[in-house]
Amino acid sequence: MPDETWPDDLRPDELTFDELTDLASRALGGGVVAANDEFFAERENLLTPDPAVYSPHTFGLKGQVYDGWETRRRRKGSHDTAYIRLGAPGVVRGVVVDTAFFTGNYPPSASVEGCRIGGYPSVKRLKNADWFPLVERAALKGDTANSFAVAGDGVVTHVRLRIFPDGGVARLRVHGVAVPDPALLPGVFDLAGAEVGGRVTDWSDRFYGSPRQLLLPGLAANMGGGWETRRRRDDGNDWVEIALGQPGVPEIVELDTSHFKGNAPGWASVTASDGTVLLPRVRLQPDTRHRFRVAADRAVEAVRLDIYPDGGMARFRLHGAPTAKALKKLKASWS
User: Fold this and answer.
1) What is the pLDDT of residues 207-258, one digit of tens each?
2) N or C: at which end does the chain have fewer Cβ atoms within 10 angstroms?
3) How far is CA 255 from CA 16, 215, 232, 280, 292, in A?
4) Cβ–Cβ contacts within 10 Å for residue 146, how many?
5) How do residues 284-329 score in pLDDT, each as one tens digit?
């Protein structure tokens, strides 16, 4: 990663798509609404945040147990289908169809389509939706994270995965930038949250845990659900830079060290990308959700969280009100 200086550009456009938020992840509330078949392995496995696992010679009543979605051998028809509700609607930048551990039983090809449909549609309504291609039918390899870049700027709420003709897929990742429905936003919310488009753009270290987990909704289940750096042996400190999902005026910053007991940072500070100090260096306690009032008189687009000297943090929140310009842009995206 770059050296420990504040960059001239937060470089979100230089991130590869698989470093963007997985909009379909169960960690964001994504769900598999329906699938025409799941005889060998349940459809819900597709969206599990953790990588697939495999235990050889582990047999159930329907054969080898797989951590993924697996359909029976098709004798009629052309494909099997799964309908997925994204945990956060947004613009899709890339899709990963991961066939991990499926070797003699993976689909030879697959396609992924998207649609935008409000509310909580029934399966029948989803089947009749106006679907558009995200990934045209493409060849897959077995036991491989098959990656496909996606172009376009339309907001997607649901995706449809088709596998030809049948087989097993371990995970489906739908990477992109969340674009929340402005009609459903409260007046004050977490401006940095992954659900509203917040994304990590740079970091000093992520040895034990990804900094992207800082922006996930809900509470971390354990230390593995947060960001943790290795132990520093120099005079520096660790940091992470975050592009807010929605620019706005921050009011409260939350620094959550839950589960980090012997390895929480000693101190932390938060600085806006224009150099404004939102939270001066403050002492932290282990295993604690800290909340601090922020003295801000202007809108912020990006922030840097510094921890001293190193350690782990479960969640970062920056509650505030979005700007009128940000809301207008959101409304245009959904119009």
Assistant:
1) 999 999 999 999 999 999 999 999 999 999 999 999 999 999 999 999 999 9
2) C
3) 27, 11, 21, 13, 8
4) 19
5) 999 999 999 998 889 999 999 999 999 999 999 999 999 999 999 9
Taking the C-alpha atoms of residue 24 and residue 158, their distance in angstroms, rounded to an integer, is 9
Which amino acid is present at 139?
Answer: A
Structural domain boundaries in the chain: 18-178, 183-327
Report, in angstroms and rounded to the nearest whole number, the Rg of the chain calculated over CA atoms: 21
Check: CATH 3.30.70.260 for 18-178?
no
Q: pLDDT per residue over 39-60, tens digit each?
A: 999 999 999 999 999 888 888 8
C-alpha 255/C-alpha 291 separation (Å) is 6
CB neighbours of residue 289 within 10 Å: 14
The amino acid occupying position 45 is N
Per the structure block, which two tokens stand in for 313? 């943090």
pTM of the predicted structure, to 2 decimals: 0.89
d(CA 140, CA 168): 11
